[in-house]
Amino acid sequence: MSNSTDAILDKFQEIQTEETKVDTSKKLRVGIIGTGWIAEAHIKSYKNMPDVEIVAGADLIPGKAEAFFKKFGVENVKTFNSHKEMLDSVELDAVSICTYNATHADCTIYALNKGVHVLLEKPMCVTLEEAIEIVKAEKKSGKVLSIGFQPRFDANMQMIKKIVQSGVLGEVYYIQTGGGRRRGIPTPYGTTFIEKDTAGIGALGDIGCYSLDMVLNAVGYPKPLTVTGYMSDFFGKSPKYANKPEYASIFGVDDFAAGFVRLEGGIVLDFRIAWAMHIDTTGDTIILGKEAGLRIPSTECWNGSVGGPMKLYHDVAGKQVETVIPIIENKGPSLFDKKIRSFLDAIKTGGPSPVPSSQIIYNQAIIDGIVKSAKLGREIEIEIPEI
Fold first, then answer.
1. Which residue, 58, 192, 311, 335, has most beta carbons within 10 Å?
2. H or E element: which one contains 293?
3. Rounded to an integer, what is the distance from CA 327 to the centroid of its chain?
4. For the chain, what percentages of helix, strand and coil (3-state, to nearest 5) are there?
5. Rounded CA gap, 151 and 217, in Å?
């Protein structure tokens, strides 16, 4: 590597900072809505926070919430069979919403209207219309709403944004992103991920929202203008590929989706995502700028990280060169702990939200636009009102 490329790489070296000390003089009273698989990560993280008291939980299935808290050794928790009953009965500072996609909006809006801070698991919701109503409730409440994108706290994801925002790429004009799994429809966790009434959207919302956030956050979340979308369900609806043949008959979402999106600032976004396909990846993520390009290796199972060292393609003294950006080891707390901690800190300091709805509504607008465009079979304009 030349001295010139060494200098460029040095520009992006990670600076480690000390963890801030947590004030435990006042404990935040937290509730968990929905006690399925993802709620396990939430309760484990909350148990690591010395300024949190878990006091309530709700789940639609009778007895499930009680069993959940018993499993994790959390005592003296009031449990309910509905989020409304819980929020009406218990004084809370904050809630984690870990329900299935189709109920995200209802639970979030009710909690915000009750004056409770909300950590909402991804995807934000199912439709753009729901996202708009969530943001309206957030603004009216004045409470913190953060969306559950823990990859934001990955040092490598932060490096992507640092590179793009440094200006070394120049003006960005094209982004290719996506990824997926050769086989990875999430039926081991039951059928709520694949049924239309509970999930609303499939791979597009489950892992597609992560892929979109990676690149949109890097370029400053420009507003989406138009989208051409495509969706399919060839694997999910085939007994040949289903984990259980009977799941094929109830599969009601996408297992593959793609979109061609025009963003403000003249950026084009070429996106595709899959739960299942006859290939191991839909390709690396690339961000093309007028001065340089960045390649971000794909992963085998899109989990919100990078698949290997990134590579910056640029010119130095008239020569075409490549700078390898080494993988950064994430030190300290887990990404999930960082997600939870950032939410709690925002509550205590009065914000801002670590993953704000003002950004993620654009993420949701693209997802919703792909769904609507795919149904219509043509390009559509994305319209997001001022809220």
1. 58
2. strand 292-296
3. 21
4. 35, 25, 40
5. 11
Q: What is the pLDDT of residues 120-140, one digit of tens each?
A: 999 999 999 999 999 999 999
From the CA atom positions of the chain, what is the Rg in Å?
Answer: 21
The percent of residues above 70 in pLDDT, for the chain, comes to 94
pLDDT tens-digit series, residues 146-194: 999 999 999 999 999 999 999 999 999 999 999 889 999 999 878 999 9
| Chain position carrying tokens 């290719």 | 176
Comparing C-alpha atoms, which of 305, 333, 338, 371 is closest to residue 148?
Answer: 338
**CA terminus-to-terminus distance, the chain:** 50
* Residue with tokens 């609507």, as numbered in its chain: 372
Burial 269-283 (b: 16+ CB within 10 A, else e): bebbbbbbbeeebbe
What span, in angstroms and rounded, lies between the C-alpha atoms of 192 and 35?
13
Evaluate whether 182 touches 278 at the Cβ level (below 8 Å): yes
Phi and psi at residue 35, to the nearest 5°: -120, 40
| Spatial distance between the Cα atoms of 341 and 347, rounded to a whole number of angstroms | 10
Please check whether residue 257 is in contact with residue 203, taking contact to mean a CB–CB distance below 8 angstroms: yes
Burial (0-12, 13-18, 19+ Cβ within 10 Å), 116: buried
Closest CA to 253 of 205, 190, 304: 205
Burial class (CB in 10 A: 0-12, 13-18, 19+), 268: middle
Instruction: Measure the CA dihedral 337/343/347/353, to 10°.
Output: 160
- The answer to whether the beta carbons of residues 273 and 301 sit under 8 Å apart is no
Q: Residue 23: what pLDDT?
A: 86
- Measured between alpha carbons, how far is 221 from 359 in angstroms, rounded to an integer? 6
Which single residue is written with the structure tokens 């799941």? 247
All domains in the chain, ordered by first residue: 28-149+337-355 (3.40.50.720), 152-333+363-381 (3.30.360.10)
Pairs from 348-355 (Cβ < 8 Å, separation ≥ 24): 348/23, 348/28, 348/51, 351/144, 353/144, 353/145, 353/146, 354/146, 354/152, 355/146, 355/147, 355/148, 355/149, 355/152
